[in-house]
Amino acid sequence: MNRLLVPLHGGGSLKKWCIQLLPVALALSAIAAVLQPARDVAWGANGHRVVATIAERHLLPIARVRIRELIGPSPLARIANWADTYRGTSEGAHTASWHYVNVPPGQDYVDPPGDTTQNIIQAMRLQERILRDTTRRRDERAMALKLLVHFIADIHQPLHAGMASDRGGNRVEVRWFGEPTNLHTVWDSRLVEDQHLSYTEYVGFLDFAEPHEIAMWQASDYLMWMRESQALRDTVYALPRANEGEVPDLRWGYRDAMTPIVERRLLQAGIRLAGVLNRVLGGFPQE
């Protein structure tokens, strides 16, 4: 490996060399950021932990016991982001398309032909079947639990019921308070992280659903959750106007308008995740 040697004497001061090399380092960093492939990660790490922790607060005692049997004493928040790590491995690469579904504008979801799992709707159904099947090995059911915890959060992010034409907003260039980014990243993490709260603090702010809301949200199904996200897309894409040749700069107006939607979707995801786990692991008959 070739190394860049910075002379400490006889060739100028260390400070001078560092100043000269700074533009090169910044340029290399920018190139790396451009070359890094975009990832469809819903809610970011803390958003997924918020959903998992809300769910854990609404679990039935028997569901808690069954979860502990599968993954030990770890909280659900600890496994909430496992699916993103897994899909980055050679073993889990086939799950990349399980994190989202593409639905063109004005169209409803239709299951793709064939027997293979191709999108998040099919993936959630598959993981629920595996988790419910007590004849399966413990490690298979534990993996299904990890995936399901993640996917139920994913489907509540509006751009995970997105459009293939812009890769769920990944190709929509925007600025976030002046910083270049894309619309998907804004919804993945910026709107959540901009609250400057830990995930446990955020849970404490959000987890106040009324009993009738809990009952209504848990009575819906995966397709309904997807359709809710799809219905929110026009609102998500309502970007401020930009001058010709510039990209929209999302600031306080967009943030303040979208934050209530983000928080409602996080809360709904957590309540619904609890409902699924209570149903699947709580000993209730399959509906």
Task: Give the helices and strands, then pairings.
Layout: H1 14-35, H2 44-56, H3 61-71, H4 76-79, H5 82-87, E1 101-102, H6 120-132, H7 138-154, E2 161-162, E3 173-176, E4 179-182, H8 183-193, H9 199-206, H10 211-218, H11 222-231, H12 233-236, E5 249-250, H13 252-281
Parallel strand pairs: 1-2, 3-5
Antiparallel strand pairs: 3-4
Sum up the structure in keywords.
two-stranded parallel ribbon; three-stranded mixed beta sheet; globular; 13 helices; 287 residues; mainly alpha; 5 strands
What string gives the helices and strands in order? HHHHHEHHEEEHHHHHEH
Task: Summarize the biggest pleated sheet.
Answer: 3 strands, mixed
Radius of gyration from the CA trace? 22 Å
Strand order of the largest sheet: 4-3-5
Share of helical residues:
40-55%
Number of strands: 5
> What are the segments in which pLDDT stays under 50 over at least 5 consecutive residues?
1-19, 21-40
**CA-based shape:** globular
Helices and strands: which structural class?
mainly alpha
Q: How far apart, in Å, are the first and last alpha carbons?
A: 61 Å
Overall pLDDT metric: 88
Strand portion: under 5%
* Count of alpha and pi helical runs: 13
Please characterize this protein's 3D structure.
- The protein is mainly alpha-helical and 287 residues long.
- Helices cover 55% and strands 5% of the residues.
- The chain has 13 helices and five strands.
- A three-stranded mixed beta sheet has the order 4-3-5. Strands 1-2 form a two-stranded parallel ribbon.
- Strand 3 (173-176) and strand 4 form a beta hairpin.
- Helix 2 (44-56) packs across helix 13.
- It is globular.
- It starts with 13 loop residues before the first helix and ends in a 6-residue tail after the last helix.
